[in-house]
From TrEMBL:
GO cellular component: membrane
Coiled-coil spans in chain: none
Record carries keyword Acetylation: no
Pfam families attached to this UniProt entry: TspO_MBR
GO biological process: tetrapyrrole metabolic process
Membrane topology of this protein: Multi-pass membrane protein
Organism domain of life: Bacteria
Name this protein carries in UniProt: TspO and MBR related proteins
Amino acid sequence: MKKLYLFILFLVINFGALALGNYFMGDAVSGEWYKDLNKAPWTPPGWVFGATWTLIMICFSVYLSFLFSIRNSKYVVFVYALACVLNVSWNYIFFNQHLIQLGFVNIILLTLVILYFFISFCDDTLSKLKYLLLPYIIWLCIAISLNGYILFNN
């Protein structure tokens, strides 16, 4: 029952963070600035972002529900909060403020935090569940390549 409660809690927090990030993004995706950027040829269509983030946040919420039922400490809360702040702030930094370089650093830091989850919190119970983080890690690598392409080609 505790894991179900935590799963629902993390779904609310994670999707809330996505909504907040989307709010901070404003209308940048449909605006002139983004349209005029030299984007990577492998930039996916817009609908892919929503579908991918939905999958990522469901998997991440399952992982977190197990992690927090086993290791609920101030340190784990801090690492998770850091991931949330980095995730939300990227939208504001990149899309709203047009700070491509800082956005690039931000997305790399977020990737390192999620990799830290993958590597550091893998005791016996989480050893297989950590693979729920792979969609997040893969997507962040794609995001780094997209952000990097814009940074180095504009």
